[in-house]
Amino acid sequence: xxxxxxxxxxxxxxxxxxxxSIENALIKADPDCISSDNSxxxxxxxxxxxxxxIYHVGEYRWNNYFKFxxxxxxxxxxxxxxxxxxxxxxxxxxxxxxxxxxxDIGQLPYHEGIKEIGLxxxxxxxxxxxxxxxxxxxxxxxxxxxxxxxxxxxxxxxxKEGWDIVKEKTGIEVDLERLNENSLRKNNKxxxxxxxxxxxxxIIHAKDIEFYKNLKS
Length: 217
Prior knowledge:
Elements: E1 2-4, E2 9-12, H1 19-29, E3 34-35, H2 48-54, H3 58-64, E4 66-71, H4 74-87, H5 98-101, E5 116-117, H6 119-131, E6 152-155, H7 159-170, H8 183-186, E7 192-193, H9 195-204, H10 206-216
Parallel strand pairs: 2-4, 4-6, 5-7
Antiparallel strand pairs: 1-2, 1-3
Helix pairs in contact: 6-9
């Protein structure tokens, strides 16, 4: 989450959509901007409504500042999130969550060379996002956009082009650097969800799928 009075903008950070790269560029452009504490949950990923309420943005800022976010094709977003969780197991909670993970390190099912994630592991991620991780109520990308329309929604596939629009609209001159790329996802681009997992995903994430389809049209 970033609020910049200098550039009159508000950035909503949806996880696994290139938001760290955007945040870093915004802080470089405006070191005095208001940014969230990334050392504790939800690690800067506040919903739009939370940004309004927790950081007391006020109606003037919200209605007049340039508001934007980044989003990602839903299935690709979820796979990136799955592999990020697999890459960062909940080790310190592993003992009390053994019943859930069925391993000693608190990790979602994954091993090197796997080509397909099945239905059960996909639903495990859904449970984690719904019941464990914050912000509460944010399990779909659209859940972060719960305070009205954005002025710009950037597709992860066109991150640089979207950033160029931000620069044009706000007067920012800092270029974008790609940061925090998921090494596991980068090295396992062929991993997919199984057909039954995708079928269930299309039901659970129907709002995201429709939202992204309308964004592309």
